Amino acid sequence: MAWFDRRRGTAAVVGEASAEPATAVVTDSAAALPQDWITGNGPAVGVTIVPMPVIIGGRHYGEGADNLLEPLSVALVEGSEVRTSRPSPGQFQNVYRRLEREGAQEIVSIHLSGKLSGTVEAARWAARTVSVPVHVVDSGTVGMAQGCAVAAVALALRDGATASEAALRAAAYCAGTRIFFYVPSLEQLRRGGRIGAAAGFFGTLLAVKPLLTVRDGAIEPLEKVRSAARARQRLEELVRDDLRQRAAGSIAAFHYFGNRAEAEAAASRVPAGAEALLTRMPAVLAAHTGLGVLAVALSDPLSPDHG
Q1: Are both 210 and 268 inside the same structural domain?
Q2: Which pLDDT does position 203 carry in this prediction?
């Protein structure tokens, strides 16, 4: 996916390729990094992405390693069992050791919220077993709120930041992100035990179309809306209000699953001065949100001097 700069109407590339830094960056597939961000001159080029497992009908898939789109879509339509898991500590250990062999002197490892997954704990366990220093960061968020932090760290390292400085940059950047999302139904979130307080908030009001957010690392209720059309409209209002308080060049990343046209339409209405991009909801998240999800991750510019 291109990172679209709506002010100029062209795809904008952030950062330039440079010598590989001595500090490696690791994340997980919940970061939802677009392909063109991790290749070529993309802002997150060189980042190692650990795949999150998705289990469909008892079969294990690895995001990025297997084609998950069709089997996951079919399973969600049919109401089949879909589960997710964390990567194993051994997977992280193997990744860290490989990066060390390739010359990494330190590693910054940034992962989805510890309140949503045990991934960060698996990374911390593995970090204690390798000889290079590994700075494990709990992003406290997910999706491109996490992904933009990963890219911001990669750029900071290219600009000469130390690993410790980069880890602090990741935590500070994540703290400034917001996520708003709409799901047509709470059923998948309920099945996966991911809605917590939202379950009581919405109760048995089956006609309610929920607007949710990620707050303090957990999925929390935001508003009750009575129709899908109004939910999407309110989501766009929240996005506009947030972006007006951010610097030019801030990012609105629209996640979707099975409803790209809807996401494209919403992205086209992002205020001038902001960067809008589309990226499909990662399978490990779509497994819990279901088809028709529309989520927006809002972040500051990747570099302090951007814009």
Answers
A1: yes
A2: 45
